[in-house]
């Protein structure tokens, strides 16, 4: 009877992903991903996923396929398991390269990649609403983000909407701001990548019916740890603008761009993301634009979160009668898949 139990337990472990903690506790289930220093695993004996600090994991073994990223910029697609004789080393069975040995502490990112499309998709939605009695001021904000990741590239699609209504004695004033973006990041070698992206902006503050920026370039993750990432990219862009002022004509210009992205994570349940992009014009004399965003996210149970976000756009040569600055400070409540 004991032999049957042992054999059944061994078979169960072989069919599932396994985490052995420093404390000796064993978690059996399906590892969803390891990112920002946190391992997320789904088990059959819990209503919600377990989220454990990566430093508390002593050994790991997976039966499912993963995209794997190391601190040295190496990328793999396959299964992994800790070396039984030396748990500080993991054996990665890459689908193309075969068996490779890596230090466990150098593993920065894991994401399960089943053959199905939907298993590789991320999804995030958040909304916010503010009502002020004075002048019946109302503001609505909403954000939707989705992404897809594979062993060769990742993509993302985002839409953000802000609408403000304010009643005066004689009329109701309205302001609006809409953003959208579609981007692709292709992994080249080590920490180098190529990027192709289109971003859209509509802003009543800057009299923009549409600003469409299409850009392409190369970048590098100059810093990657279990606590933070720092990425830099540069390239060229084409900027198209159409204004709500009927007297203003559309503008087309070529621009260079330099981008910085800084992400601090694993601060308990906090995640801080900062992005800054500078656009010096190549065809309009002395024109210079910048986009800046800051997001502080606090995650609590069942993948719900609260986000505080700041977005700033600056143009030193805006349309006549428009403000050079447009900024938004918003707090939203959301859910992430």
How would you describe this protein?
The protein is mainly beta and 337 residues long. Helix content is 4%, strand content 67%. The chain is built from one helix and 22 strands. The longest helix is centred in the N-terminal third of the chain and has 14 residues, at 2-15. It is globular, with a radius of gyration of 24 Å. The two termini are 42 Å apart. The model is unreliable at 1-14 (pLDDT under 50).
Fold topology:
Blueprint lengths: L1 H14 L1 E5 L4 E10 L2 E5 L7 E4 L3 E5 L4 E5 L4 E8 L6 E6 L3 E6 L3 E6 L8 E12 L4 E13 L3 E15 L4 E18 L2 E12 L4 E17 L3 E16 L7 E17 L2 E11 L7 E12 L4 E12 L9 E12 L1
Antiparallel strand pairs: 1-2, 1-5, 2-3, 2-10, 3-4, 6-7, 6-10, 7-8, 8-9, 11-12, 11-22, 12-13, 13-14, 14-15, 15-16, 16-17, 17-18, 18-19, 19-20, 20-21, 21-22
Features:
337 residues, mainly beta, ten-stranded antiparallel β-sheet, 1 helix, 67% strand
Order of helices and strands: HEEEEEEEEEEEEEEEEEEEEEE
Q: Between the first and last Cα atoms, what is the distance in angstroms?
A: 42 Å
In order across it, which strands form the biggest sheet?
Answer: 11-12-13-14-15-16-17-18-19-20-21-22
The fraction of residues in strands falls at over 45%
What is the helix content?
under 10%
Contiguous helical run count: 1
What composes the largest sheet? Answer: 12 strands, antiparallel, barrel
- Measured on Cα atoms, how large is the radius of gyration? 24 Å
Low-confidence stretches: 1-14
Structural class: mainly beta
| Counted beta strands | 22
The best one-word shape is globular
The residue-averaged pLDDT reads: 83
């Amino acid at each position: 009877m004991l032999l049957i139990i042992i054999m059944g337990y061994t078979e169960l472990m072989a069919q599932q992903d396994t985490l052995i903690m420093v404390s000796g506790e064993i978690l059996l289930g399906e590892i969803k991903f390891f990112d920002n220093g946190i391992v997320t695993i789904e088990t059959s004996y819990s209503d919600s996923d377990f989220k454990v600090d990566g430093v508390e994991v002593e050994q790991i073994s997976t039966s499912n396929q993963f995209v794997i990223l190391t601190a040295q910029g190496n990328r793999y697609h396959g299964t992994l398991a800790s070396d039984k004789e030396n748990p500080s080393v993991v054996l990665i069975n890459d689908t193309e390269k075969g068996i490779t040995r890596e230090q466990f502490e150098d593993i920065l990112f894991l994401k399960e990649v089943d053959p199905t499309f939907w298993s590789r998709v991320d999804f995030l939605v958040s909304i916010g609403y503010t009502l002020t009695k004075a002048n019946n001021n109302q503001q609505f904000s909403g954000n939707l983000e989705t992404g897809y990741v594979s062993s060769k590239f990742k993509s993302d699609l985002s839409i953000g909407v802000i609408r403000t209504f304010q009643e005066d004695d004689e009329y109701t004033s309205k302001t609006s701001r809409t953003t959208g973006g579609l981007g692709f990041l292709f992994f080249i070698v080590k920490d180098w990548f190529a990027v192709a992206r289109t971003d859209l902006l509509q802003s009543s503050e800057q009299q923009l019916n549409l600003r469409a920026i299409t850009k392409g370039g190369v970048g590098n993750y100059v810093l990657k740890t279990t606590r933070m990432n720092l990425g830099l990219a540069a390239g060229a862009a084409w900027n198209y603008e159409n204004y709500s002022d009927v007297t203003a004509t559309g503008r087309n210009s070529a621009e260079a761009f330099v981008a910085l992205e800084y992400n601090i994570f694993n601060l308990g349940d906090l995640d801080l993301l900062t992005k800054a992009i500078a656009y010096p014009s190549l065809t309009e004399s002395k024109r210079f634009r910048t986009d800046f965003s800051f997001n502080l996210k606090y995650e609590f149970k069942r993948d719900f979160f609260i986000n505080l976000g700041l977005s700033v756009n600056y143009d030193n040569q805006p349309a006549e009668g428009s403000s050079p600055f447009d900024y938004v400070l918003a707090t939203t409540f959301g859910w992430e898949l």
